[in-house]
Amino acid sequence: MNGHLRWWIIGLVTLGTILNYLARSSLAVAAPTLKHVFDMSTQQYSWVVAAFQAAYTIMQPVAGYILDVLGVRLGFALFAVGWSLSNGAHAFATGWPSLALFRGFLGLSEAAAMPAGLKVVSEWFPPRERTVATGWFNIGSSLGGMLAPPIVIFCIFTWGWQSAFVVTGGVGLIWAMLWYWGYRSPRDHPALSESERAYILSGMEDEASSDAPRHWHDVLRTRDFWGIAIPRFLAEPAWQTFNFFIPLYLADARGMDLKSIAAFAWLPFLAADAGSIIGGYYAPWLMRRFKVSLLTSRKIVVTSGAICMVGPACIGLAGSPGMAIVLFCVGGFAHQMLSGALMTLSADLFDKRIVATATGMAGSAAWIGGLSFSLVIGALADTIGYNPLFVCLALFDLLGAALLWSLLRRKPARVAMT
């Protein structure tokens, strides 16, 4: 027996990710209400979304660097306090400009979630288990989105729209205290057995290469980084479209009321959970069954998810709201399958001392893609409709998979941080 503490640690990360995405998903669920309260157009709503995305995009590499310098225990706790307070501040918005301001603060603080999660994975899991660990903590992003509709709509009907942001922000403060109390690195954790510590460290001996670049900015000069960053740039528009625009699409294009949205809008995120978990186990299964290399297994997982993205491309052909939701479910499953493999590549390719920084930089590339596409939706959804835009999401992912195969063709280079 190697022990199971590492799985409790990733469970704690998963809970933090759930609360992170619950906070950010609250706006999308409340959007039909807030559009009426603040008399917002779809384009003005897209600017509110863009404020979060722009702040998140800029902050991800900064957050990653802070996590690498301060350590993930203190750094993650501080960022969690920040996103909890920022989300609660949404309750004081008086129009879309102030809503956008608070949304920007939320983006600055929530940017640490994925870099922190990948740093924990790189510290607590040997390479052969990393996609599994990433798959489990990555379900938090979809579980948060899944929980948001019933929680937010319950709050709106019971206490008013302001309460939705206070509640979804407040629970993050509790998690921040729990994280700071419960997390230590594998080398320092008093509850970690020697056998599990040895197992965690197995396979990590060659992670830092003596001839690797010695400065974090040298990451940008590696082919490995761009092999991750460009596919993530192309993949992220799909997930941000699902997170920020599914409720609006169901209301505007399919005529669903708020109660119907609460009843069904969580289903794509449940499917996304399945994609995260199955994608996590898919890579090691490929390695065992077909004897493929670590990087090849990641590429196959990404390609499989990209092919499944053909499903949401066909939403315009759906004859009913129910079928549209089914196709959104296919999209949620597909995206989280490929997304987990893409994110895990940062832990595979970069030294654990700089993995949060590298993940943050790749995350910035991803969010530039998501931000750009959200602005396109805001400008075009009311004129050409959503359907051509959904087709683009599938084409982006297929192109990203092709570029992944093209760019990552050799043994990974390790980048160490001074």
Describe it.
The chain is mainly alpha-helical. The chain has a single domain, classed as Growth Hormone, Chain: A. It contains 16 helices and no strands. The protein has helices spanning 5-37, 42-70, 72-89, 96-110, 113-124, 130-159, 161-182, 194-201, 223-252, 258-264, 267-290, 294-308, 310-313, 321-349, 355-380, 387-407. The longest helix is centred in the N-terminal third of the chain and has 33 residues, at 5-37. It is globular, with a radius of gyration of 20 Å. The model is unreliable at 412-418 (pLDDT under 50).
- Could you name the CATH class? Mainly Alpha
Number of helical regions: 16
- Looking at the structure, the CATH topology is Growth Hormone, Chain: A
First CA to last CA: what distance?
36 Å
Main sheet specs: none
| String of helices and strands | HHHHHHHHHHHHHHHH
Proportion of beta-strand residues: under 5%
What do we call the CATH homologous superfamily? MFS general substrate transporter like domains
Backbone shape: globular
Write the CATH architecture name: Up-down Bundle
- Mean pLDDT over the full residue set: 90
Number of strands: 0
> What's the number of domains?
1
Lay out the secondary structure.
Blueprint: H1 5-37, H2 42-70, H3 72-89, H4 96-110, H5 113-124, H6 130-159, H7 161-182, H8 194-201, H9 223-252, H10 258-264, H11 267-290, H12 294-308, H13 310-313, H14 321-349, H15 355-380, H16 387-407
Helix pairs in contact: 1-3, 1-5, 1-6, 1-7, 1-9, 2-3, 2-4, 2-15, 3-4, 3-5, 3-7, 5-6, 5-14, 5-15, 6-7, 6-11, 6-14, 9-14, 9-15, 9-16, 11-12, 11-14, 12-14, 12-16
